From TrEMBL, chains A, B:
GO terms of molecular function: kinase activity
Protein's recorded name: Sugar kinase of the NBD/HSP70 family, may contain an N-terminal HTH domain
Keyword field contains Signal: no
Organism name: Amycolatopsis xylanica
Entry keyword annotation includes DNA damage: no
One of the Pfam families matching this protein, by short name: ROK
Family listed: Belongs to the ROK (NagC/XylR) family.
Keyword terms of this UniProt record: Kinase, Transferase
């Protein structure tokens, strides 16, 4: 029981940051003396510290703040993308203590190379910072099985059946948690971003591929064998373009990076930087933005209407490239979803917002699934 | 604790039927003396009875069977359909003790009429059988809020914003649980039908409308405010037919009853009986069946591929009209889903099967959500 309360308190501090003892007592529904015992124990173990906050305007003695100590629990987060890999050591409280990243080209993208490089870089980073991670979270753009970190298919990396979890574990000897990138984006936005407090939310990201992560009744939604869904491979335009997955007209073919390039009149392999420049220019001219992007927006709307009609979220969070669409376009898309989705009308209007965690969103999500494994052992 | 064990034991008996004490002990992980105390208590209260089973071939003294007593807990189940209403009183163990039904035409379909008729018929049925229901489950073909039984929209009934739960409760004064019909179909198949034991399954039914119910990690999936998804309003053919919901090319417009009539070359308002006759004739001639139904089957496949790619179930259960499609057609659809869905390939091949609970499926689902409320008070 005490162990359980300790873990719950630690999770609260980890996710919400420094709190007073009174807040901890109120949030956890425990009495003050129980909180005192727990906090004293954690402080003695060096997991938290109590500090006088900077004085505010109010009168009276300020309450002590309980602060999680980042070094008390450290995890390794890995964000494996199609073009590059980022790794970070993340401390208790969610602070990034240090990071490293490298590009993937040619042979560097092969599973053997990637795995070796992750292990070596992580060891160097941990050595530099003088910390030791106790679990690893890995974000992969593909179809992964949560139970053992098996990558079934990561098409844009050209990976098939890679025992990623097992292979990292055989060297690092700590728990390895592998998740689909969009699922981890959803986790991060739910815990630390714009979907905080939402019980039902869907995070949709468009990069080279299009993926989605679903928070249902406060938790990640997964299907059989722990595989998460592949929203990007919802067929939405059966007379459209062939997709590598074998279908024709997957949503990914209409709202992925290549489709956005086509909508903007750019070559499909335009570098990311040039796409962003083009989008930022359009942002200043709503009329021009709509002329260029209305068809793209229509496919985005249709897919999101389907997502809402199937899953009934109160919140849709857009990630990656979708966050840089002109605000005027996103506003119209949001309005159309509310107008056209039966289920959105029932739940009182699904809101459409952009991810707020930026480029670190998947790294932070990967860190969280790793922390999930270690908080009860701190 | 004892109350909790009692409810768990009762739920097991309710769902799986008569068991020996040894089976109960094994299934619940309780020791034999605890089981004895619980069963003795339930027997004394008349909730279960212990009986010697008919002798089998084995030697030795047969174990006593613990049987749930149907009259010990009775709920009212209501299956509200577009053309008619069925009600039943269902006893502990899931046995239908008595039933009644009537057609809906013209004014009879208005909410006031339907509600009055349900209340009167239920009272008469209960009087005839000499039992008293302690909760009500209602299946509605529409968008309903589980929390208070509010019907937001039931388009084929032309109902909008009907406080169904509240209105039934104001007269009947017992808990009223209102669910979407496809959700309750999923519940019934999961507890008593072909999806028993499946952790992740989707039930899809096509009648006038097309709906779906999702079992995720063993429980019903719902979105914000308790609304379930509306799979039938997934847009799948954006250049297709207008749907009453405001979209164009909803799945319902391609695999609902009207679409099936078109595929068979029948008028869209062909009576159900005539559709069934046509389908049964086709069943004997797989080649003719495929010629007539291949386009219908393609839309069915596309929608099911999307459902699998979004939700990753291990099992798809077809209900209503879809169960009478020729077996040769369903076999091809199943094969195509496994071939074309990325996620089906990952989970090791989603199986496509037909509902086995027949016309009572939604009635049984409605009974179960009502039992869910009362088993701990028996």
């Amino acid at each position: 029981m005490r162990r359980h309360n300790r873990t719950t308190l630690l999770r609260l501090l980890h996710v919400t940051g420094p709190c007073t003892r009174a807040t901890l007592a109120a949030e956890l529904g425990l009495n003050r003396s129980t909180i005192k015992t727990l906090v004293d124990g954690l402080a003695e173990a060096g997991v938290v510290e109590e500090k006088v906050p900077r004085p505010g305007r109010g009168a009276g003695r300020p309450s002590l703040l309980v602060l999680p100590q980042p070094q008390a629990a450290v995890v390794l987060a890995v964000d494996l993308q199609v073009e590059h890999v980022a790794i970070a050591l993340v401390g208790l409280g969610g602070q990034i203590l240090g990071r490293n990243s490298w590009n993937l080209r040619g042979r560097m993208r092969e599973a053997d190379e990637v795995i070796t490089h992750i292990i070596e870089s992580a060891a160097m980073l941990a050595g530099d910072l003088g910390v030791q991670p106790t679990a690893v979270g890995v974000s992969v753009p593909g179809v992964v099985r949560r139970a053992d970190g098996h990558v079934h298919e990561a098409p844009n990396l050209r990976w098939t059946d890679v025992a990623l979890g097992e292979r990292l574990n055989s060297v690092m000897r700590i728990p390895i948690l592998v998740g689909n990138d969009a699922e981890l984006g959803a986790v991060a936005e739910h815990l630390r971003g714009v979907a905080r407090g939402a019980s039902d939310a869907v995070y949709v990201s468009a990069d080279v591929g299009v993926g989605g992560g679903v928070i249902s009744d406060g938790s990640s939604l997964r299907g059989a064998a722990g595989y998460v869904g592949e929203i990007g491979h919802m067929v939405i335009r059966p007379d459209g373009r062939p997709c590598y997955c074998g279908n024709i007209g997957c949503w990914e073919t209409e709202v992925g990076e290549a489709a956005l390039c086509r909508a903007l009149g750019l070559a499909e392999d335009t570098p990311r930087g040039a796409i962003l420049v083009e989008l930022r220019e359009l942002a200043g001219d709503p009329q021009a933005a709509w002329e260029r992007l209305s068809e793209f927006a229509e496919w985005l709307t249709l897919g999101l209407v389907n997502v809402v009609n199937l899953l009934g979220p109160q919140l849709l969070v857009l990630g990656d490239l979708l966050t840089v669409l002109p605000a005027s376009v996103l506003e119209r898309v949001g309005g159309e979803i509310r107008r056209r989705s039966l289920v959105s009308r029932a739940v009182g209007g699904t809101r459409l917002v952009s991810s707020v965690l930026g480029a670190d969103v998947k790294l932070l999500g990967a860190a969280e699934v790793a922390f999930e494994q270690v908080l009860d052992t701190v």
